Amino acid sequence: MIAKTLQDMFKRYRRPGDVVFAVLFLAFAVFLLSQLGDQTKVVKRTKWFAQPSLWPTIAVWSMVVFGFLHWLSSALSERISGRWAEVGFWARSFEYVAYFLIYVLLVPQLGYLPSTMLFAVFLTLRAGFRGSGAVGLAALFGFVVTIVFRGFLQVKIPAGAIYEFLPDSVRAFALTYL
Amino acid sequence: METLLSGVAILLQWQVIVALLIGSIGGVIIGALPGVGAAVAIAILLPATFAFEPIVGLTLLLGIYGSSMYGGAIPAILINTPGTAVNALTTYDGYPMTKRGQGHRALSLAYSASFFGGVFAILCLMVLSPVLALVAPHFGSREIFLAALLGIVLVVLAHRGQIFAAGMLAAFGVFLNTVGLEPVKYTRRFTFEQSWLASGVDLIVVVLGLFAISQAFLLLLEKNHAPGNAHVSGNLFAGLKELLGVKRVAAVSSSIGVVMGMVPGTGEFTSQFLSYTYAQKTSKDPEKFGDGSPEGLVASEAANNAVPGAAMIPLLALGIPGEALTAMMLSVFYVHNVIPGPQLFENQMDFVLALYMALILLNVIVLVFLLFSTNLLLKIIQIPTRFLGVMILILAFVGVYSLRNSITDCAIAAGFGVFGLILKRLDLPIVPIILGMVLGGIMETKLRSAMARVKSPLDFIDRPIAAILFSLIVLIVILHLRTLYSEFKNKLRPEPSLPPVDSDHPNQQG
Q1: Spatial separation of the C-alpha atoms in residues A88 and A82, rounded to whole Å
Q2: Residue A11 and residue B221: Cβ atoms within 8 Å?
């Protein structure tokens, strides 16, 4: 009996939305297959193993074959309820994609330190933490990350355009470390 | 002897020591935080390590890799929540021990078994190094091609019950690697006339998206929760003595971990499964397994901690990563123009020895740290999961943006973040994509150079190692098909009714 339960621990189970993903992936693979001729080239006087189209062909055909088999096994399996609720969950992630990309666009304008602190505080509020302690911790986290990565490790992140308007005494420091 | 001393000199650089301390202690904390894990941390830190010397960067990443599973055992044992996915089996016996008031005993045993597994693996590798140095030069292009192919086959077949999904995702990884300007004939592949696709899809952008950003999205969107309060009291040193009583299980489990760590595409899960099954079958009290068996706990922890050291073997000796974390480390080598492979063992043995010694030191640092600071860690891990999501997303930005200050990279990483979130929600594997990307590139290059000397198909496997690798691939595929056939035959028979899995124990695959 234990061996059976142990086997179960290592087994993967299908989850709601599986068939939707299988259809989308198969459609993507078939689209790539339809583009194979246009998007890869067969070079003359070159043997098959050195053709630039060899590996894309192997990869795309494997995606189509395995994708089809995966879709088939999902389609033939018992339906699990909650399929569209799950798809809705995936779609909700685009809200955070938008926030992330706005943050990415803000960094070269506002500078790494201000935009990171703002982003941390905003996300904390959006995640449902309203207390001043949580907001303060978020701002502190943004500050520490900036100091560690840009100030200390000198990671390659451009200085904010807004720093140009700072007084001379702090501008050089801000451009280098913040 | 000279090589050993040179290795010690490399290890004693202050930067290496600092990297080792930060990596090992940071790794324990990261491992103890449910929902983070070594892959997320390594993905985030990867671009930052490019500025360091290869040994410093690798020590930092290895520290995180090797120590995260120690930390992951703490919440697994005390609050039934595995810190990392591989600690799920630890909950099986660790948590029942805590429920019986033996939390300190379980933790102490887990630390001791982890230490034993980790050190055992490295000692094996140090002993094996001369053999590897002897064998590695016999790996030419065709052998490396076949070893990479073996890795792909194994990573697909290792995902039992999801082989089709693993196959399509591995193929997707191979496809991603082909996108962009092809370097030999300079033709464009799947660029759709878009300039931003001409340079291809960067492995690190994909890794950060699939591991870090997806995890941030998942934590931000799912219900917020924080690990409960827990405290452990009692002597944590006792486990070192108790381990002597189960030394056979510890030694066999560590050996299994070493072998599985060396085989590409298998890793911690398979080693744990085999070790646990062995320990249960040879135990005097098999009925206690799953209900607080010290032997089960030792088998699980010794096996998974033996893997990181052993996983460095195919990476260092052949330049072939066996799983996602070593695939990430491979990029550290490439950035510094250090090409892992046979030449590394021939020409830079001191570098290899320094890495092994760093791994031993890492285990000592972690054990000492844990024996004195478990209760402190229990306080740290009480961070709400949504706040962890905020932290990961902010850190992921540093990783992606610092690569080449590209907004496009960030957008691609965010896209892979959504893709990774879907895969995680569906319990589909991410590792085949990463291995497909890395091994696909290796196979393309090596096939091209290997075929230059091949006149007929049989020439490809006329050297002993190539023949062995080819036979292994064929044998593994045949064995797998045979297993599938016998399972299919068994399904036709009526199944006896079996009790469901205990709800106390989370699924191993998370």
Answers
A1: 10
A2: no
Q: Distances in Å between the alpha carbon of B428 and those of B81, B82, B170, B299? A: 21, 19, 12, 26
Give chain A's domain count. 2
The number of domains in chain B is 1
Q: What distances in angstroms separate CA B97 from CA A95, A113, A130, B204, B293, one per listed residue? A: 43, 47, 38, 41, 8
Q: Which domain holds residue B404?
A: 2-453
- Nearest alpha carbon to residue A114 among A162, A153, A172: A162
The C-alpha atoms of residue A14 and residue B427 are separated, in whole angstroms, by 7
Q: For an interface test with A, which of B181, B220, B423 has the most A Cβ atoms less than 10 Å from its Cβ?
A: B220
User: What is the reported pTM?
Assistant: 0.87
Q: Are B71 and B29 in contact (CB under 8 A)?
A: yes
Residue A89 lies in a domain: no
B510 assigned to some structural domain: no
φ, ψ at B188 (rounded to 5°): -90, 140
Q: In this structure, are A143 and A108 located in the same domain?
A: yes
In a domain? residue A171: yes
Residue B321 lies in a domain: yes
Which alpha helices (H) appear in B12-102, and where do they start and end?
Answer: 14-32, 37-49, 54-78, 88-99
Q: Which residue of A has its CA nearest to B287?
A: A2
CA-nearest residue to B437 within chain A is A59
Amino acid, single-letter form, for residue A161: A
Provide the 8-state DSSP code for B180. Answer: E
Which residues in B lie closer than 8 A to residue A118 (C-beta atoms)?
Answer: none
Alpha carbons B422 and B218: distance in angstroms, whole number: 9
- Chain segment A72-116, per-residue pLDDT in tens: 998 888 888 888 999 999 999 999 999 999 999 999 999 999 999
* ipTM of predicted complex: 0.93
3-state secondary structure of B430: coil
Length of chain A: 178
Please indicate, yes or no, whether residues A166 and A98 belong to a single structural domain of this protein.
yes
Rg, Å, chain B Cα set? 22
pLDDT, one tens digit per residue, over A31-44 is 999 999 999 998 88
Q: For residue B188, give the H/E element and its range.
A: strand B188-189
Asked which of A81, A112, A137 is the last residue of a domain, the reply is A81
- The first and second tokens of residue A145, run together, are 């990350």
DSSP class per residue in A19-31: HHHHHHHHHHHHH
- Within-domain flag for A87: no
Angle, vertex CA A108, rays to CA A103 and CA A114, nearest 5: 65
A116: closest chain B residue by CA: B394
Whether B273 and B301 have beta carbons less than 8 Å apart is answered as no
Q: With an 8 Å Cβ cutoff, are A129 and B405 in contact?
A: no
